[in-house]
Amino acid sequence: MRRKLVIGNLKMNGSITANQKLFAGVMAGVADLRNADYALCVPYPYLCQAQSLMQGSNVAWGAQNLCANEDAALTGAVSPAMLVDYGCTYVIVGHSERRIQLHETDDTAATRFNAAIKAGLTPVFCMGESKEERESDWTEYVVGRQLDSIIRRYGAELLTKAVLAYEPLWAVGTDIPATPEQAQEVHHFIRKRVARCNAEVAENVRILYGGSVQTENAPALFAMPDIDGALVGRCSLEAKAFVGICQAANQV
Ligand code: PGA
Questions:
Q1: For ligand 1, is residue 165 a contact (CB within 6 Å)?
Q2: What domain count does the chain have?
Q3: Which domain holds residue 175?
Q4: Whole-model pTM above 0.90?
Q5: Where would I find the H helices in the chain?
Q6: Which of 97, 104, 167, 187 does the annotation list as catalytic?
Q7: Domain harbouring 39, CATH code
């Protein structure tokens, strides 16, 4: 039985003051919700704050990206070991905003995915199709290609140490979430594709849905057999909204 997991992706939002309020509100709101797992992925400068305020609580924390290299002459980059130093559990890899706006590729995402696992971090590997790709019936081709970029290189077994996230681009930041049925269809496709390589891994890997998840649509999404939680953007910026989604995960 897979435990539900709700991860907040703060993106490039927050401040020391705003985070204090957010972290306190989330920790208080989920303190008694013992049936699921919760985490917040914060911008790098706030990892120290996340660690000092949330350690000992049932909210884990993580980062939104990492560099695949260890110590190197690479200005502006952050290594896997640095994230481990700050107690990160999770790191988001291959988010569509980075793939599109920062030109990340299947190749570079796959390398970071592997580097995260080698460092003992849990990568949250994002996949998803654009509106045009969906309309051309390319969803399975695109998501399959992204998934294969890690399976081909590193094998399906590594997915026991990872979390997958289906985030259709047309649903991220748009207020047009996938319907539970649309999301379930792709989650099922992802699980089947992993099962072709390793049935046991497929049964256990958690696949999160991301894209306009809110308190209102979370229960129906979480009721789907292959949806194991959510990757939440905007609604992770406000404790009440995020806790509402966590409550839905806890109740399933
Ligand atoms: P959203 O973002 O919840 O604001 O749509 C989701 C994501 O990008 O992970």
A1: no
A2: 1
A3: 5-251
A4: yes
A5: 16-30, 47-54, 80-85, 96-101, 106-118, 131-135, 139-154, 180-197, 199-204, 218-222, 239-251
A6: 167
A7: 3.20.20.70
